[in-house]
Fold this sequence. Notes:
By secondary structure, this protein is of the alpha/beta class. It contains eleven helices and twelve strands. Strands 8-7-6-11-9-12-10 form a seven-stranded parallel β-sheet, sandwiched between helices. A five-stranded mixed β-sheet has the order 1-4-3-5-2. Helix 9 links the parallel strand 7 and strand 8. It is elongated.
Amino acid sequence: MRYEVITSPNNPRLKRAMSLREAKHRKREGLILIDGPGLIDRALMAGIDCQELYVNQNWVEGLDPHGLERIQTWLDASPDMHIVALGPAAMAKLRYGDREDDAIAVAVPPDTSLSAASQRMDSERPQLFLVLDRMEKPGNLGAMVRSADASGATAVFISDPICELWNPNAIRSSLGTLFTIPIAVGSESELFGWLKERDATIYAARVDQGTPYTAVTYPASVAIVIGNEAAGLQERWHGPEVQNIFIPMHGQIDSLNASVCSAVMMFEVVRQNGSP
């Protein structure tokens, strides 16, 4: 196994990888960071192009035999991946916050166009789409993608996002499901048109407006729309072709966290229609 060793936190290659912590550099380079062995496993299983792998120097020196085994497994999946062994100071510099990840990958994010997502969808089963409108918190976005994966959703659509889909926090909170479930990013009108062309019935989650979510009989093709954490949907995803639903509240608050709301509603669809 061939690899490069970096011990200085000021190494240019390391600095380039570190710059990907910032959205402007991810956008410019067309690259993202994947933090931790578990997320790297999931990304490679999903066919993500991991170009560089930064690992703890102990792994390549055989001080951690499981590390060597893991690197070889990743190389089997992506033979052209460049391996970089980092000394303690360099590794600490690249890690996020107080996390102690021993492996961090630089990767090319998947295509999030509607056409690309459509090719990945399974059309032979009931259709459940989660639409996230103007999400602004990466942690919430990732958690909702995780819930969509857990419910067996067909795809996740990101409508006019405020936060960046490939923010490392979104990737971490999704537990890597951002790589495994079909995802498309588009405008409200673009995604609405796509859903209507495919006869999906659209349900917009609102606060105490419409029909209680458990009182609805869901058809075989369903889209659940969740709005911005602070502002909700307002006048977006509104009209005669959209049905409003809500989760009744029995305490002092009038709404749930957007992530919780999405999970509750998706699993009600699954309960009624069976696993997608």
